[in-house]
Amino acid sequence: MGLAIAPVQAAEGKSAHIDARLISVSPSVPQGGDLMLALDYKAAPGWHTYWINAGDTGKAPTFTWSLPDGVTIGDAKFPVPKTIPTFGLMSYGYEGRTVLLLPLRNGSKLGAGEALPLKARVDMLVCEKICIPESFEVSLRLTVGTAAPGSDAKIIAKAEKALPKPAPFTGTIAVTDGVAEFGFAGKDLPSPQDAYFFVAQEKVVKAPAPQTVDTGAEGFAIRTEAQGALPEGDLTGVLKFKNGIAYDVKLTRAPLAPGVYGMGSAAGGAADTSFGGILLAALGALAGGMILNLMPCVFPVLSMKLLALSRAGHDQRLARTEALAYGGGVILSFLALAGLIVLARSFGAQVGWGFQLQSPYVTAALALVMLLVALNMSGVFSVGATLQRLGGEVQLDQKRPVLSAFLTGVLAVVVAAPCTAPFMGPAIGVALTQGGLSAVTIFLALGLGFALPFVALTFLIISVPAVARALPRPGPWMSWLQRGLSVLMYGAALWLIWVFAQQVTGLGLGLLIAAVVLIVAGLVIARLPSLARIAMVVTAVVVTAFAAAHALPPTSKATTVAPIDHIAFGMNQLTRLRAEGKPVLVDMTAAWCVTCKVNEVRVLYTPEVADAFKTTGTTYMVGDWTNQDPEISRYLTLFGRSGVPLYVYYGPNKAEPKVLPQMLDRGDIVKLLKAGK
């Protein structure tokens, strides 16, 4: 017969402002075994309790145990605290419900089935506008036996997840001229902006003093006001990031390492992952998605939309269905892209918005797709299941118009990747920082915004007869419009080939050009046998794969050829320039980033801006993210961004960095450089 496990018996504790109970993972504990207990308590609304180091004022909870012989309970494990400012003072502690973990070791000689009574007196300082010392007793009656999850196991499991994680990086501390300097070396960390360090020992720092972050090539530093000389003994603390991740850090006494400071705080760069921040990011994504329709990289696909709109008033049912199919293709593509990015980042890959164009395979494939669409629109060939249905006398896809509209939405998202509209950068930064449902929500909003203008305009044409009647009826003019708009697709194909040239060796570029020639010849030369034409196209696809395989080695950094004086980006070089007090404008760009190229032509490469760089002594530093570059990826992360463009101005005399808008204005840049702030 097996032993019956008795239900756990507990007595709740209560004081004027605290309700508490002692709970356990299991109602039984093996002889010589370990078990996790917890004090689960709740402070009255408006009242708070304290962490290990209470800050300016307060006191951590203390326990006085009554235990069977041989039973021991270790020190309480505290969840990550929060800052609680009160009347100009700063406390570290908790509000509302708190769970303190208490590890138990059963070293008693009690046998199986015997009772194991536990009792504790808990003393707490509970504060609102006044502080009141309060005491209460809690008890728990366990049995000796095989451990099995009890009714409170989930509460304790959740509390264990709320503990700060062991730090996978090193920490240092030093006090210089009354300033405490904490250094944290590590490259695979969350954005350090707005990070906060809770020192576990008292009288090390002044709790109300602000903590400032200074980033570096190898990590970051936090500076704040010290209370005096460092106390003897081990020094530890909890480093809390804005995204909620926290680490338990052991500190060694040493000055800041050169690589953990020097680039400034990048204030405001961290993604706001609060509920309000996520909601704001979703609204920004919605607006950014709508504006994305006006960005240059989407112009080629706009040709397909224009031709579809020209038919909307004359085949209303089909137009409505196609518009919804297009919207569905857009939204599902954005969600799929978000899933790929989040999955890749979960495996440690440094990828972001537009990451797919960092792959020569994707760039080459897109170049061929654009070429095929252009040839199709030019009337060189027709297929039964092409990417668009143009209607009228353009009989390209009468059989599958809905599928065609859906695929047009997919293609629109793919070609939109090189562009970043206003509001998109911070929104995507929040999505990729938070992940999960938040990322899905933000990318869904982005997709809705991108699809909304075309879908809404289609329904407007359908719903308002006057608008429908104003549209010209389908006819021969559509063939001419189709051929004229094909120029945009040819331009997109040539641009992607140019991007491909930045990613591969000369042999790889030559192979892609040969593949293009094979495709054009196979489709244009009508007198060739059908089998030969198919063989030429298939051969071109194989040759394209071989071309993409000739990518530049990972150690090769992409280089931007600019018509004005500039230097290549490097965090160590940026740190040296700032240490010398020189102003710097950092330009994070990529060959496939159309927004970047527009800013370069309209603003950065103009004589006025070049002259401002020269007269103010500002260093123009360019980071080329055409190919994967871990250093650039980390720099983007520091500012809560996941893609380019990113423009950051560092004023003279070590001024704090300033993030500039994604769409630049020539006059504003000249004014900024001359003002030096």
From TrEMBL:
SUPFAM superfamilies documented for this protein: Thioredoxin-like
Statement: the UniProt record of this protein carries the keyword Transmembrane helix: yes
Domain spans labelled Cytochrome C biogenesis protein transmembrane: 281-497
Chain ranges of the Thiol:disulfide interchange protein DsbD N-terminal domain: 27-138
Keyword entries, A-Z: Cytochrome c-type biogenesis, Membrane, Redox-active center, Transmembrane, Transmembrane helix
Annotated GO CC locations: membrane
Pfam families documented for this protein: DsbD_N, DsbD_TM, Thioredoxin_7
Chain segments annotated as transmembrane: 278-302, 323-344, 364-390, 402-425, 437-468, 480-501, 507-526, 533-552
Domain of life the protein comes from: Bacteria
Gene Ontology MF annotations: protein-disulfide reductase activity
Compartments where located: Membrane
PANTHER family named among the record's database cross-references: SUPPRESSION OF COPPER SENSITIVITY PROTEIN, THIOL:DISULFIDE INTERCHANGE PROTEIN DSBD
Protein name: Cytochrome C biogenesis protein transmembrane region family protein
